[in-house]
Amino acid sequence: MTKAEDLVADIEALEEKLAAAKTSITSRFIGQERVVDLTLSALLCGGHALLIGLPGLGKTRLVETLSTVMGLNGNRVQFTPDLMPSDILGSEVLETGSDGSRAFKFIEGPIFCQLLMADEINRASPRTQSALLQAMQEKVVTVAGETRSLDAPFHVLATQNPIEQEGTYPLPEAQLDRFLVQIDVPYPTRDTEKDILLATTGTEEAQSTQVFDGESLIAAQHLLRRMPVGDAVVEMILDLVRAFRPDDPAASDKVKEVVAWGPGPRAAQALMLTVRARALLQGRLAPSPEDVLDMARPVLVHRMALSFSARARGEDLGALIDEIAAGMARTEAAA
Fold first, then answer.
1. Structure pTM?
2. Which residues form the signal peptide (predicted)?
3. For helices 33-44 and 59-69, what crossing angle results, to 10°?
4. Low-confidence residues of the chain: pLDDT under 50
């Protein structure tokens, strides 16, 4: 077989495995296919995800199910205002040996895992939030002057409550940019809620089964990066990202008016990866322009900011992204 044929066979095998993983996840996390797809996309891309939704919508259940299905060693940290960086990273303690000798020993924190759930991440102080910056970007932590590698693969799935803002600390721009995607977890539809009621209030609940493990997930991440991306898709990614930078000539008057600052190169990198993941999850061998338009909002919305006057008028970033993306789609169709 040629290299191209090998790549096609590998992609098709991975697509079957992903379909089995998705079936296992949705047996416990019912109905929210969009949320599941975006979360799986983040893991396939080797990135992190920020899940935003009201209490009781199943965010914790989703992360626990993912840990089982993807075969990852997971830990959960409940972020609170009094949480310290050492509570996440670990710390050195002074130990006395049986011979009376004394030496420092490093006690690993919960971040030394493969899937970290950072629950209500915006309730911790900026000092504690910043403890995750190095870990999320470089997959290492530095404690007491020594750099220690984290487990591979390493992913952070953080949750945030959009309405309880009292006693919270908004995530800084550098922290938000570390998240590959922002995933909005909406209320379920009536039919979905009925299915949830029937599935979770009986004597038995569906159990998820392991489909991946750490090594196979890493292999999938490497395979995803080998997927071909056409020139049209690459150009569309660049056009879309640059269209939201107020000082770029490609930006519209609306963007210049309402956007304070736009997405950087990391946003284009994230789009390049996530469009491949979406194609994989839909059983295709290469991404299309439709994938770019679909992933625009979750990839870009947390990498931009409205101007003060736009916030005062109640402008919505998500709606702006959808509007610009739709206009780009019409232009592409006309061409």
1. 0.90
2. none
3. 50
4. none
**Other Cβ atoms within 10 Å of 228 Cβ, number:** 12
3-state secondary structure (DSSP) of residue 305 = strand
| Among 302, 241, 249, 301, CA closest to 272 | 241
Spell out the domain ranges in the chain.
228-335
- The DSSP call for residue 178 is T
Distance from C-alpha of 91 to C-alpha of 187, rounded to nearest angstrom = 40
User: Furthest-apart CA pair in the chain: how many Å?
Assistant: 81
- Give the pLDDT of residue 255: 87
Which of the 8 DSSP states describes residue 151? P
- Residue 168 — φ and ψ, nearest 5°? -115, 160
d(CA 268, CA 274): 10
| Amino acid found at 202 | G
CATH code reported for the domain at 228-335: 1.10.8.80
Length of the chain counted residue by residue: 335
Distance CA 332, CA 209 (A): 42
- Residue the block writes with tokens 């259940």: 61
Give, in order, the Cα–Cα distances in Å from 257 to each of 41, 187, 263, 281, 305: 32, 32, 16, 37, 12
pLDDT tens, position by position, 219-235: 999 999 999 999 999 99
Q: Where are the alpha helices (DSSP H) in the chain?
A: 3-26, 33-44, 59-69, 85-89, 126-129, 131-138, 173-176, 190-200, 214-226, 231-242, 253-258, 265-281, 289-300, 308-313, 317-334
Distance CA 325, CA 279 (A): 18
Q: Which residues pair with 181 in a beta bridge?
A: 49
- pLDDT reported for residue 166: 64
Evaluated on CA atoms 264, 266, 270, 272, the torsion sign reads positive
Position 268 scores a pLDDT of: 94
Q: Find out whether the peptide bond into 287 is cis, omega within 30 degrees of 0.
A: no
Distances (CA, A) of 250 to 238, 258, 265, 315: 11, 15, 16, 21
